[in-house]
Amino acid sequence: MSKYCIIVDDLAVDRQLAARYLQAAGYQTSLARSSKQATDQLQHALTIYQPSQMLLLLDLNLPNDPALQQVVASSLAGANLALQLQIQIANGSLPKLAIVALTALSASEIHQTAIAFGCDAVLEKPATPDLAQRIEQALAASSQQAPVGSQALLNILRLRLLAPTPSASLSEDDLTKALLQLHRQGLVGLGASHLANYLFPHTAGDYQRGLQTQTKIASVIREAMQLNVLETLAILEGEFVHLQAPQAQAEQLHLSKSEYYRRRKDAISQLYLILAEART
Prior knowledge:
With about 280 residues, this protein is of the alpha/beta class. The protein has twelve helices and five strands. The longest helix has 21 residues, at about 205-225. It starts with a strand and ends with a helix.
C-alpha cells in the first residue's frame, strides 16, 4: 500500500529535502508552502488515498503564511493548521489522519503545545535520510500515550494563539461575583450566578447548575495545569474547586494580600476568555 505525504513548509529547500528522503522510502509526496495550499491538496488527496495512507508533515514556524495574520504566537503558526484539521476531525467533516510536525524549534513547551493542538508527534529538523523511520517510530510511540487533547484544552490553546473576541454576554466581573457567591452560599450561590446561567442555561436548579459550573471550571483549570499552559489559573483552583478562603490561599502560597488579589485578577481574566469561548 503506497503512502502519501503532504509536506508543509514555507522554505522550498526544506520541503524538497524532506520530499527527497520520503520518496526514497516509497512515499508519494506533494509540497505546500502555506496552510491554504495544504488544505487544498488534502481535499484532493482524500479523493485518491485512504486516510490511513496519508500523512501531513508540517513546519510549526510559517512566517510567510497568510494565515499568520490571525495568529498571535508566530512561532506556532503552523500548529494552527493542525488545530483547524482536528476541529474538522472532531465534527466528522474530515477523517482521522496522521499529523507530524517537523520543526527547528526545540523548546519543550512549543512541542507540548503542538501536540495539544493536534500534532500526533513532533520531530526536530533537519530532515535526515531516515526521516520515514523517524516518523513511523514517533507515531508508534504517540499511539501508546494517553491523549492530551480535549475540547476544553483545545479552547485553552485556541485562546492562547488566536486571540478571539470575548463574548459580550459574560464579563470578568461576572466571574468575580460568581466566586463571591460561591464563598457565601456554596454551590447554590454559584448556581444562581450569571456565570452558571451563561454556561448551563438549560439546567434546572441552582445546586445542580452550580455543581456543573464548578466541574467545568475544575476541568479547564486542571487540564491547563497538566500541560503547563496558562499556569496562572492554578491560583483559582483552591477557591473554585477546594472552596478555600482567599486569605487561606494567600497564606498557603506565601503571598501578601495585595499580591494574591493581583494574581487572582489576572487568573480571572484568563478564565473569562476561556469560558466566554467555551460555553457548553
